[in-house]
Amino acid sequence: GHGSTQQVHTVFFGGGTPTLLTPEQFGQILAVIRREFDVLPDAEITTEANPNDLDYGYLMALRAVGINRLSIGMQSANPDELKLFARRHDHEVVTRVMPEVRRAGFDNVNLDLMYGTPYQTLDSWRHTLEATIGFAPEHVSLYALGLEDGTPLKEWVESGRVAAPDDELSADMYDLATMLLGQAGYAQYEISNWAR
Fold it and tell me: In a 10 Å sphere around its CB, with 0-12 CB exposed, 13-18 middle and 19+ buried, how is residue 39 labelled?
């Protein structure tokens, strides 16, 4: 039968790497959502995205099935492999991808950053923030790395393979972000979120 008359203003694909899906799969999921709910014409439809998965063709196909906002992870939050934290930031990837994102017609983009990660310094964080501001995203989310029970990272810290996150340094990183983003015209509306 027909779906509910419940109005939907936002749809969000997240919690991992939804960009492993094909555009057709996104389209099938969105078709079901549109059938079951009253998705408003100007609804914000977001997918989280690993920048490595994005190229112009894929981005155009996402637009075609109705996705109109991207949330791009600039730094991998996946602590399954220690080497992810040692590698250089994903700036190069984001630098390559952002022009394609804009060319494909996305005018609503969030960049997701993590701070307080192993190997990060206040200097490297400043560099990340300046690069982020340079990309001129509409929205920025910042998350402090937490040591969650049952994660490899927590075991590595407990076994001494990785230094424990430095709370003082994380606080300094947060303060620096608040200052730089504020100067760049971003308004903080929530503990981890800034918008233009």
Answer: buried
Contact 57, 25 (CB under 8 A): no
CA 124 to CA 186: how far, in whole Å?
21
Q: How far is CA 74 from CA 40, 51, 150, 151, in A?
A: 30, 7, 24, 21
DSSP-derived letter for residue 53 is G
Sheet strands side by side (includes 109-115): 7-13, 38-49, 69-73, 109-115, 139-144, 193-195, 187-190
Residues of the chain with pLDDT under 70: 1-4, 75-91
Length of the chain equals 196
pLDDT tens-digit series, residues 33-83: 999 999 999 999 999 998 888 999 999 999 999 999 999 987 654 444 445
